[in-house]
Write a structure and sequence with these properties.
Belongs to the GMC oxidoreductase family. The chain is an alpha/beta fold and about 575 residues long. Helix content is about 25%, strand content about 20%. It contains 12 helices and 20 strands.
Length: about 575
């Protein structure tokens, strides 16, 4: 028998970026907030001397325990979906901060085009640019409407940038801190792209360039360029993450409590509202019911969708009929790019997760798509994240795969290899979706999420086109040997690609085309909110985190309004 606890104003399911932002804003407004985090507590102190590549980057110290919960995967409906037994294509975070602890720190704003992609595409290229199999739609909100929330997120996080991207949407203010160091490697990229007629700029970074105190009074330190960002927590408190910003802000109010090892297994629905959530204490095995005036799903994309599915809230998407929205519009990314082998040595072992330069000339609708078989594009970047020796062992394609020649080539090329790569946008496709698995369950008896996904012709055309652009750049940089990325075949759950999963709980203007409205309020339960990259109607040519942060601030504003007045916010 589950024990019923005292009712609170707001309960969040997960304490990463979205859970932390919701908690901070609501707690500052006087609401009593409980954060349920199924992992454990951690802080900067836990990452002292964290430079252990095997423990963190190979054995995934900070990631979800797949023996307790995973997903099942298949490329299409004819295949049998099988459980993902080891982290591969994407890395699911766990514990306080979630994926916001082990991220690289790239912090982008989606382009104005992204939010009105359907309208702009139809107007410029006609309604038949993509077939009806692609479920393209506008987001229900414009860039200009979201811009103040982008600004708020960037100021909270102290984001470093130069503001020189000529294709970016209008900004109400400059970046809070200056851009990171422009290293010799980045200068090489800058010269090559400028000579090719492109417009390079410093990548917006949450590995910040100088000490910064944010508007809530939280201190963020300056990056040390140690090269241990992605898959690692920051020992310097210099990579902006929830546990050094929004979580302490929420706690200082006295209105916030986090319960650790609290695994939510169900949202409890009553009529057109929800009453709270049921969770299991992962240490004791006890079950609890946490009543709340407002429930906010702030866990990862896949878990937000899964909780709605197991709680039978909303209509599950059916690819045969096209009905339903829950689980619809799952998107990933493609990674066009090229590797260059150089004569000179470079300090590739130094860097930071978001230390880089980019061009947007081939992103969004920044170029004419009339004569290509795809829409959108990719931000193309040269990043210097710090190359670590276990994960990175580049050798030219004619090198033997073992023996003394392999060892010699490996040692020689470690500091002589660079990559130019793009984050390719993906469009929603009718056969790419999330559902519940009918066979496999997690350690608590809850059905696993099933992912049905494969690359599409749109993906393959975009990847081929932008791989050629990447080749052009790396060759211009002076590489003696250039190796383009392999053409796309079928998507595989291994190896690692990006943790940029989107869709499943998409936002929109009505219940027929979305799961939540533009305040991320659920259409079927007015006191239930779901916020994260699951709200994206498609995936863009950037990392999603800046847009996730902006949506979280908008959602928090909506929750506070709802707590005062009730009812639908749109």
């Amino acid at each position: 028998m589950a024990k019923t606890l005292e009712k609170v104003d707001v309960v969040t399911v997960g304490v990463g970026w979205t859970g932390g932002i919701i908690a901070a804003e609501c707690a500052k407004a006087g609401l009593k907030v409980i954060g349920l985090e199924r992992g454990k507590e951690r802080s900067t102190a836990d990452f002292a001397q964290v430079h252990d590549e095997f423990r963190y980057a190979i054995r995934y110290e900070l990631m979800q325990d797949l023996s307790k919960e995973t997903i099942t995967f298949r490329n299409n409906r004819k295949q049998e979906a099988l459980p993902m037994r080891q982290m591969g294509s994407f890395l699911l975070g766990e514990n306080l901060g979630g994926a916001g602890t082990h991220w690289n720190g790239h912090t982008w704003r989606f382009l104005p085009y992204d939010f009105e992609i359907k309208s702009i595409t139809d107007k410029k290229y006609g309604k038949n640019k993509l077939s009806d199999d692609y479920l393209l739609q506008d987001w229900g909100i414009t860039y200009d409407e979201l811009e103040p929330y982008y600004d708020k997120f960037e100021k909270m996080a102290g984001i470093s940038g130069d503001g020189k991207n000529p294709f970016q949407g209008k900004r109400s203010d400059k970046y809070p801190t200056p851009a990171m160091k422009k290293t010799p490697i980045l200068q090489k990229f800058e010269k090559a792209t400028t000579d090719l007629g492109y417009s390079p700029f410093m990548l917006p970074s949450a590995n910040i360039s100088e000490p910064y105190k944010n508007p809530d009074g939280e201190q963020i330190n300056a990056c040390q360029y140690c090269g241990f960002c992605e898959r690692f927590g920051c020992e310097y408190g210099a990579k902006t993450s929830p546990e050094i910003t929004v979580v302490p802000t929420a706690r200082k109010t006295g209105n916030y409590e986090i319960r650790f090892h609290a695994n939510v297994v169900e949202i409890l629905k009553e009529g057109n509202k929800v009453a709270g959530v049921k969770y299991v204490d992962r240490v004791s095995g006890e079950e609890f019911i946490q009543p709340a005036e407002v429930v906010v799903l702030t866990s990862y994309v896949m878990n937000n969708a899964r909780l709605l599915m197991v709680s039978k809230i909303g209509e599950q998407y059916d690819p045969t009929t096209g009905r339903g929205t829950l689980g619809k519009n799952y998107c990933y990314q493609v990674l066009p790019g090229a590797t260059g082998f150089f004569d000179e040595q470079m300090n590739v072992f130094m860097g930071a997760g978001a230390l880089g330069m980019s061009i947007d000339d081939w992103n969004g609708d920044n170029f004419d798509h009339s004569d290509v078989d795809f829409i959108h594009g990719a931000s193309i970047s040269m990043t210097q994240p710090g190359v670590r020796p276990i994960q990175m062992n580049p050798v030219p394609p004619d090198t033997p795969t073992w023996g003394s020649d392999f060892k010699k080539a490996s040692i020689h090329n470690y500091t002589r290899t660079l990559n130019v790569g793009g984050q390719g946008a993906t469009m929603p496709y009718k056969e790419n979706y999330m559902s519940l698995d009918s066979v496999y369950k997690d350690a608590y008896g809850v059905p696993l999420l099933q992912l049905t996904y494969n690359f599409t012709e749109q993906d393959r055309a975009l990847h081929t086109y932008l791989t050629k652009k990447s080749e052009e750049i790396i060759k211009k940089m002076g590489a003696k040997t250039v190796v383009p990325g392999s053409p796309l075949t079928d998507y595989d759950i291994v190896p690692y690609q990006t943790t940029h999963n989107t869709g499943g709980t998409i936002m929109g203007t009505n219940p027929e085309n979305s799961v939540v409205n533009t305040y991320l309020q659920h259409w079927d339960a007015e006191n239930l909110f779901a916020v994260g990259a699951g709200n994206f109607a498609h995936n863009g040519g950037y990392n999603p985190n800046g847009t996730v942060g902006a949506l979280a601030y908008r959602c928090a504003e909506g929750i506070i309004k709802y707590s005062k007045n009730g009812g639908s916010l749109v």
